[in-house]
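Hi all, posting the design record for the shared folder.

TITLE: backbone redesign
STEP: 1 of 1
STRUCTURE INPUT:
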C-alpha cells in the first residue's frame, strides 16, 4: 500500500518522523516534498497529495503544514479527495470509519510528534464501515458534480 506525503516548510522534521513511522508499519511512502526549509506555498503540496491519491498513484495521502488547515483545503479541491484535519486519534479513526477520508492532515505546529504518530496510526488502522456511511459520503461527493 502506498502513502503519498506532502508538506510545507513548517513540517520538514515532522514529515521525516511520520515517514519513518509509516514505513515502519510496512507502507511504501511517496515523498512529494517539500524537502527544503525555505518558505513555500502549502497549496502546491496539498494539490500534489490530492492528485497522487485521486490519480491512483497512491492509495492514501498525508498532508502536513503548520496547522493542517491550508494544505487540507488545497487537497480537498482535487476531485475525489476527502481530506480531514485531525488533532487527535479519535477524529482520525472516525474520519476513516464514517467519512472514508483518503487524506489525513495535521499541523506540525499543533501536535507533537508522538501525538502525530498516534493520529497517523489510528487513521491507517481504521477501515471504512460502508453501509449508511456510504450513502452520506456519496452525498458529499455528489456536491462535486452539481
Ligand atoms: C505557514 O506559515 C502556514 O501558514 C502554513 O503552514 C499553514 O499553517 C497554513 O494553513
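Okay, here is what came back for every position:
SEQUENCE:
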Amino acid at each position: 500500500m502506498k502513502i503519498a506525503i506532502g508538506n510545507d516548510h513548517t513540517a520538514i522534521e515532522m514529515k521525516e518522523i511520520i515517514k519513518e513511522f509509516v514505513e515502519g508499519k510496512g507502507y511504501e511512502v511517496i515523498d512529494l516534498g517539500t524537502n527544503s526549509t525555505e518558505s513555500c506555498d502549502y497549496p502546491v503540496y496539498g494539490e500534489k497529495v490530492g492528485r497522487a491519491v485521486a490519480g491512483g498513484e497512491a492509495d492514501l495521502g498525508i498532508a502536513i503544514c503548520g496547522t493542517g488547515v491550508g494544505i487540507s483545503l488545497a487537497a480537498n479541491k482535487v476531485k475525489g479527495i476527502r481530506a480531514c484535519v485531525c488533532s487527535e486519534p479519535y477524529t482520525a479513526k472516525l474520519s476513516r470509519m464514517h467519512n472514508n477520508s483518503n487524506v489525513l492532515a495535521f499541523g506540525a505546529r499543533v501536535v507533537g510528534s508522538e501525538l502525530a504518530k498516534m493520529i497517523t496510526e489510528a487513521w491507517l488502522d481504521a477501515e471504512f464501515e460502508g453501509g449508511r456511511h456510504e450513502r452520506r459520503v456519496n452525498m458529499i461527493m455528489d456536491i462535486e458534480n452539481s
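COMMENT: Residues 8, 10, 42, 65-67, 69-70 surround D-ribose (CB under 6 Å).
Let me know if anyone wants the other runs.
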